[in-house]
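**Fold tokens**
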Amino acid sequence: MSGKPKLHYCNARGRMETIRWLLAAAGVEFEESFLETKDDLTKLQKDGSLLFQQVPMVEIDGMKMVQSRAIANYIATKYNLYGKDLKERALIDMYVEAIIDLNELLMTHTFQPADKKEQHLATIVDKATNRYFPAFEKVLKDHGQDFLVGNKFSRADVQLLETLLMAEECKSDILAKFPLLQSFKARISNMPTMKKFLSPGSQRKPPLQEKDIPKLMKIFY
């Protein structure tokens, strides 16, 4: 055993991507074991590795952790990305849950049928620009600090950056009316661990392509 966390998932973003981002933000090296076929998933299910019969699964500190939010909570706590006290953690949780809501919309866009894609994109843009981005713009404006909570780098910053970049993949000018979020994106992207993760050759996964969907469906269904 190398001692590095080992991530079990398909070679795609999905529900593992935020976990990759958090480990990278903390400067933690990790290994990945990719599910290539349905048999790979079945093997994990049959050998007792998946408590609830599903991935993501992360081997870390002698545990085989499942449930993506639980894994992210553990990593954020272990690597000091979860605020200094209960109030900061509550704020981080509040922001992260909102980010996850938008992230879910973004993640499912590629899976939409052709005749629903345009409407789905319109929903993403509407919720991003009228609900979520104005709220985070206001947070940054009100406290005038570099980070979302406690003027210290936290999982909320990591997860917001991930989602901002995903939103820009859907619509390149989606941040046009949000100057503070644009500055936030540039600032967090240039932090050493984030800059490394955003560079070519890292373990960050590219956007899902439609041609890859049938392979994923064969693994999970």
User: Anything to note?
Assistant: The mean pLDDT is 96. The longest strand covers residues 6-9. The CA atoms of residues 27 and 193 lie 6 Å apart.
